[in-house]
């Protein structure tokens, strides 16, 4: 019986389909302008929490219809703090609102398809502050995907382990015959 079980398990493991290893993709954000260097990282597809904002609400950019919100660690000129971020959708535009400095920034919509299921776009975006802080209203936001090391899939490791066990069993069986 033992001689039959091991080959059957080995054969069955060959037909196990490898599962795709999925690590959450992370996007790095760098906002520069008016002497500020602001960095933070967010999931490339954060959980959507779409909220409707009344026009001119202090927590939303003026004229926004909907937005999604989240809080994260933000580093501003080397000082790290927890900030509330808002990514609104406008009738004709988008932008970003940080809890403190520089405040409300207008520009293109930074995610697709909508605030309930957002995925950030990557690239460099020009944003304008309103009202301008210190006479400067031009900011640049760069969103880049974070590079991650590849991780072996669990099924690959299981198949590798089964092969090692098979070689050990083969060697033991051969040693007994001699």
From the structure above, extract its key features.
2 domains; two-stranded antiparallel ribbon; 11 strands; alpha+beta; 178 residues; 2 helices
Task: Tell me what the structure shows.
- It contains two helices and eleven strands; from the N terminus they run H-E-E-E-E-E-E-E-E-E-E-E-H.
- The protein has two domains: 2-20 and 152-177, no CATH class; 26-145.
- It is elongated, with a radius of gyration of 26 Å.
- It starts with a helix and ends with a helix.
- A hairpin with a 2-residue loop joins strand 4 and strand 5.
- An eight-stranded antiparallel barrel has the order 1-2-4-5-6-7-10-11. Strands 8-9 form a two-stranded antiparallel ribbon.
- The chain has helices spanning 2-14, 154-177, and strands at 26-33, 36-43, 50-52, 64-76, 79-90, 94-98, 104-107, 111-112, 119-120, 123-133, 136-145.
- 21% of the residues lie in helices and 44% in strands.
- It has 178 residues and is of the alpha+beta class.
- Helix 1 (2-14) runs antiparallel to helix 2.
SSE ordering: HEEEEEEEEEEEH
In total, the number of strands is: 11
How helix-rich are the residues, as a percent range? 10-25%
Provide the low-confidence segments as ranges.
none
* Radius of gyration from the alpha-carbon trace, in angstroms: 26 Å
Rough shape? elongated
Number of domains: 2
Largest sheet: 8 strands, antiparallel, barrel
Structural class: alpha+beta
Mean pLDDT: 76
| Ends distance | 22 Å
Strand order of the largest sheet: 1-2-4-5-6-7-10-11
Work out the strand percent.
35-45%
How many helices does DSSP assign? 2
